[in-house]
Design goal:
The structure holds two protein chains of two kinds.
Chain A: H1 2-42, E1 45-46, E2 54-55, H2 59-65, H3 68-99, H4 106-118, H5 121-131, H6 138-145, H7 160-185, H8 189-197, H9 202-213, H10 215-230, H11 234-239, H12 251-261, H13 265-298
Antiparallel strand pairs in A: 1-2
Helix pairs in contact in A: 1-13, 2-13, 3-7, 3-10, 4-7, 8-9, 10-13, 12-13
Chain B: H1 3-24, E1 37-41, H2 45-61, E2 67-71, H3 78-88, E3 94-98, H4 102-105, H5 115-118, H6 130-135, E4 137-138, E5 141-142, E6 144-148, E7 153-157, H7 158-164, H8 175-185, E8 193-198, H9 203-215, H10 233-248, E9 252-255, H11 260-266, E10 270-275, E11 288-291, E12 307-311, H12 316-329, H13 332-342, H14 355-364, H15 368-374, H16 388-403, H17 409-424
Parallel strand pairs in B: 1-2, 1-3, 8-9, 8-10
Antiparallel strand pairs in B: 3-12, 4-5, 6-12, 7-10, 7-11
The chains are: A mainly alpha, B alpha/beta.
Chain lengths: 299, 427
C-alpha cells in the first residue's frame, strides 16, 4: 500500500516537476539546441540563405585549411585571449583587494568600478573611439603633454588589437572584481586573525592568506573569461569592424562577415562548429586542471 | 554574460531558428488572397512623418490596395533582416534596400521582375535620373523602383579658405589644385586638416575611390563583371593621389569610423569633404560651399549610392499593389512634396521643372541645387553582382593599406586584383 502510494506520489512529483521546467527546457531547446544541430547540418551545405541549399560534404571544412584570413583571425583570437584573460584576472584581483575594506564611501567606489560592466558595448566603443582618436583624442593629448609620441591606436594595424585588449579589460574588471570581492569577504575571519597574531602585514595577508583561498573562484573566472574572449564580437563591430587591414578580425567577427556580409552561411556554420569544439576543449581542460588542483590541494 | 557572450547564440539563432521556423511554414509566406501589402522601411525623423502621411493618403484612396508601413529598425541591417525573413518565410512585399544590396538579393527567387511594368508609358521610367535607373537594373532586368538618390560633391569651409588665404574651389578644379589646397589648409598647430577620408575599409572607403577611378578613365570590373579591371593606369593614378595626400603631404584626416569627419567639419577642423546631401543638415554652423568634385583631365564624374524599393512576389495582385504604390510615391508631384519635407534630392528630371522645386524646395535646402545638378556627373553604377560585398572588401583593404602607408600603390593593386579574381572565379 505504502509503496504504491509513494510511487503514485513520485510520478505526480515528476509530472509537476517537468511542468515547472518545461518553459525553460522548451526555450533552451528551441533557441539553444535546435540552432546548434541546425548549424552543424548547415556546415555541410553551400547555403546563401536565398537559393535552395546544396549538400557539399566536407567542402567548407576543407576550405578552412587554405583560408589565410581564418588563420589570421585565429591568431588574433589567441593573442587577444592570452592577453585579455590574465590582465583581467590580475586587475580584478587587485581592485577587489583595494575595495575589500571598510572606509567611508566604499559603496561609491564599488559602484564606480562596476559601472563599465553595465555600460552598453556600443557606448563603450563610441567613447573609446573618441578617446583613442589619433588626431583629436584625449589619450594622445595626454601623451604629448608628458613628451611621448602620439600613437595610432585603433587606426594602426600594429596597435589596434592591443587597444582592443585595453578597452575590454577596462570593461570586464568590474565584473571580475565583484566576484572576487564576494569571495574575499567569505574568507574565514579566524584565518585573518591568526595571520595578524603571527605578525603578518596586510600585503602579505592578501597574497599569502586570502589569494590562495580564492582558487575555485579564479578557476571559474578563468573559464568564463576565456569563453568570452573566444567569442569577442561586439567591441570589434562597434569600433574597428575587424580592421584596419584585418588587424582585429577575430573568429566570431569573421563568422559574422561570412554569414551576413558575404552570405556564405554554410562556411560560417562550419566556423561556428570549429569555435564550439575549441570552447568545449578549453572547458574540459579547465575542469580537469581544477579537479587535479583540488585533489592535490586536499592531499 | 555580456552581449558578446550572447552573440554566438544570437548568430546561430538568426541563421538557424529562422531556418527551423521556415521549415515549419511561417504564416507570412502564405498569400492571403487580398491585394493588401506590407512595406518595410528604415525611415526616421522627418522621413517617417512624410511617408506615414503619404501612406495614409494612399490607403484612403485605395482601400483594397492598402499598404501597411512597418519600421524595420533602420536601413543599415535591412538586407540581413529581409534575408532572414525569406528563410523564415516571413518577408515583406516591398522593402527599402540600399543599392549595394541589389547584388546579393538578385539571387532571390521571389524577387519580382519589373522589366515589363517599367515600359508602361504612364510610369515614364526614363524620367528617373540615369544613376538610379542603372542601380535598379541587374543584367538588363529591372528589379527595383528608385527610392532615393544622392551623390558625392566637394563641400568646403569658406572661412578656412579665407584664413589660409587661398582661392575657393571652382567647378574646374583638377586633382592637383585639390591636393595643393588641402596641403595649404592643413595646420597641425590648430588641428586643422585639408581633407578627410573615411578609412574604415567598408564601402564608405571604396566609393570615394571609385569616383576617382572612373574620373581617371578606369573601370572596377570588366564589362561582363567576370574579371577585375582596376589594375590599370587609372587605378594607379587614383591610389597615387591618395598616397600623395595622406602619406606624403599628411593633409588628410583618416577617419577610422564614418562618424568623426562630419563632427570635425562642423567644428571647423576640416577644410574639405567629399560627401553627400545627407550631411548638410549637421553643418548649419559652418559657412560652407558646395561644388562638384575636382576632376582628372576634365572628367568630374561623381558616384551615387541610390536606395531602392524592392518587391518580393507572393501573388500578382500584391505585386500590382506594390508597383502601383511605389510608382505613385515616386511620381514627380508626390515625390517633390516628399522631398520638400525631407530634403531628399529629386529622383526625376521632371521634378526639377515643377514650380515648387524653385519656389519651395531650393529655398528650404540651400546647397541642394549643386547636388541635383551633380547628378548629371554620375555616369557609372557599381556592378550589381552577388559577390559585390567581397569585391568591395578587397578594394577597401587596398585603399586602406595605401592610406596607412602600409603598402605601395602598385603592390596594393596587385594583391587586391588577385583577391577579386578569386572571388569572381567563385573560389
Amino acid at each position: 500500500m505504502i509503496t504504491a502510494w509513494a510511487r503514485r506520489r513520485s510520478t505526480a512529483d515528476h509530472v509537476s516537476g517537468w511542468m515547472l521546467v518545461a518553459p525553460s527546457v522548451l526555450l533552451i531547446g528551441l533557441f539553444g539546441l535546435v540552432p546548434l544541430v541546425w548549424s552543424f547540418a548547415m556546415s555541410f551545405q553551400r547555403n546563401d540563405l536565398q537559393t535552395p541549399a546544396e549538400w557539399v560534404g566536407l567542402h567548407n571544412y576543407d576550405q578552412m585549411l587554405g583560408d589565410p584570413v581564418l588563420v589570421a583571425a585565429l591568431r588574433h583570437t589567441l593573442i587577444y585571449t592570452v592577453l585579455f584573460v590574465p590582465l583581467t584576472l590580475v586587475g580584478s584581483l587587485v581592485v577587489a583587494g583595494a575595495l575589500n575594506r571598510n572606509i567611508r564611501g566604499i559603496s561609491i567606489y564599488r559602484l564606480a568600478v562596476f559601472v563599465p560592466v553595465i555600460t552598453s558595448t556600443v557606448a563603450t566603443g563610441v567613447i573609446f573611439n573618441f578617446l583613442l582618436d589619433p588626431e583629436y583624442g584625449l589619450a594622445n593629448g595626454l601623451l604629448e603633454k608628458v613628451g611621448l609620441p602620439a600613437q595610432g591606436f585603433f587606426s594602426d594595424p600594429d596597435q589596434a588589437l592591443y587597444a582592443m585588449v585595453a578597452m575590454t579589460v577596462w570593461g570586464w574588471i568590474g565584473f571580475g572584481a565583484l566576484i572576487y570581492l564576494a569571495a574575499l569577504q567569505s574568507v574565514p575571519k579566524d584565518l585573518l586573525e591568526a595571520a595578524a597574531l603571527d605578525g603578518c602585514g596586510p600585503v602579505r595577508t592578501f597574497w599569502q592568506i586570502q589569494v590562495p583561498q580564492l582558487r575555485p573562484v579564479t578557476a571559474f573566472l578563468t573559464t568564463w573569461l576565456i569563453i568570452n574572449a573566444l567569442q569577442l564580437f561586439d567591441e570589434v563591430y562597434v569600433t574597428t569592424k575587424g580592421g584596419p587591414l584585418h588587424a582585429t578580425t577575430v573568429v566570431v567577427y569573421y563568422l559574422y562577415q561570412q554569414a551576413f556580409q558575404y552570405f556564405h552561411a554554410g562556411y560560417a556554420s562550419a566556423l561556428a562548429c570549429l569555435l564550439f569544439v575549441v570552447i568545449v576543449l578549453v572547458t574540459l581542460i579547465q575542469m580537469r586542471l581544477t579537479r587535479a588542483n583540488d585533489e592535490s590541494g586536499a592531499a | 554574460m555580456r552581449q558578446q557572450g550572447r552573440f554566438a547564440v544570437t548568430c546561430a539563432g538568426a541563421l538557424t531558428v529562422a531556418v527551423a521556423l521556415g521549415a515549419c511554414g511561417g504564416s507570412g509566406d502564405v498569400d492571403d488572397g487580398t491585394a493588401k501589402i506590407t512595406l518595410w522601411h528604415g525611415y526616421t525623423g522627418a522621413q517617417t512623418e512624410a511617408i506615414t502621411a503619404l501612406g495614409k493618403q494612399w490607403n484612403a484612396e485605395h482601400p483594397d490596395q492598402a499598404v501597411t508601413l512597418v519600421f524595420d529598425g533602420g536601413n543599415d541591417d535591412v538586407l540581413q533582416k529581409t534575408t532572414a525573413g525569406f528563410v523564415a518565410g516571413n518577408y515583406p512585399d516591398v522593402a527599402y534596400e540600399y543599392g549595394s544590396s541589389v547584388g546579393p538579393l538578385s539571387r532571390q527567387p521571389r524577387l519580382a521582375d519589373l522589366t515589363e511594368r517599367s515600359q508602361d508609358p504612364a510610369v515614364d521610367w526614363d524620367d528617373f535620373f540615369p544613376a538610379v535607373k542603372d542601380a535598379s537594373t541587374v543584367n538588363g532586368k529591372v528589379v527595383a523602383v528608385p527610392a532615393l538618390v544622392d551623390n558625392l560633391a566637394l563641400v568646403y569651409n569658406k572661412d578656412l579658405f579665407a584664413r589660409a588665404g587661398i582661392a575657393e574651389p571652382t567647378p574646374d578644379w583638377t586633382w592637383q589644385d585639390f591636393r595643393q589646397a588641402a596641403a595649404a589648409l592643413t595646420d597641425k598647430e590648430a588641428g586643422v586638416y585639408g581633407w578627410s577620408y573615411v578609412n574604415d575599409g567598408t564601402e564608405d572607403t571604396v566609393w570615394r575611390y571609385l569616383a576617382m577611378l572612373w574620373q581617371a578613365g578606369g573601370e572596377l570590373l570588366t564589362a561582363d563583371n567576370k574579371k577585375p579591371a582596376f589594375n590599370s593606369a587609372a587605378g594607379l593614378a587614383a591610389l597615387n593621389q591618395l598616397r600623395d595626400m595622406a602619406v606624403t603631404d599628411r593633409s588628410v584626416y583618416l577617419d577610422t569610423g564614418n562618424q568623426n569627419y562630419s563632427n570635425l567639419f562642423a567644428d571647423g577642423k576640416i577644410g574639405m569633404l567629399w560627401t553627400g546631401p545627407w550631411d548638410l543638415s549637421s553643418f548649419d554652423k559652418v559657412h560652407y560651399g558646395v561644388v562638384r568634385l575636382p576632376g582628372y583631365n576634365g572628367n568630374h564624374e561623381s558616384i551615387s549610392g541610390p536606395d531602392l524599393y524592392m518587391m518580393f512576389n507572393r501573388s500578382d495582385r500584391k505585386t500590382d499593389t506594390a508597383w502601383a504604390f511605389t510608382t505613385w510615391l515616386t511620381s514627380p508631384k508626390v515625390h517633390l512634396e516628399y522631398a520638400i519635407q525631407t530634403g531628399d534630392l529629386p529622383l526625376r528630371t521632371s521634378e526639377t521643372k515643377l514650380p515648387e522645386y524653385r519656389s519651395t524646395y531650393l529655398k528650404k535646402y540651400p546647397g541642394a541645387e549643386e547636388f541635383t545638378d551633380n547628378l548629371d556627373n554620375v555616369q557609372h553604377a557599381r556592378p550589381n553582382i552577388p559577390e559585390y560585398s567581397q569585391v568591395s572588401q578587397a578594394v577597401g583593404e587596398m585603399v586602406q593599406s595605401v592610406l596607412l602607408g602600409q603598402a605601395q600603390p602598385q603592390e596594393a593593386l596587385d594583391s587586391a586584383t588577385e583577391t577579386v579574381q578569386s572571388v569572381l572565379a567563385g573560389s
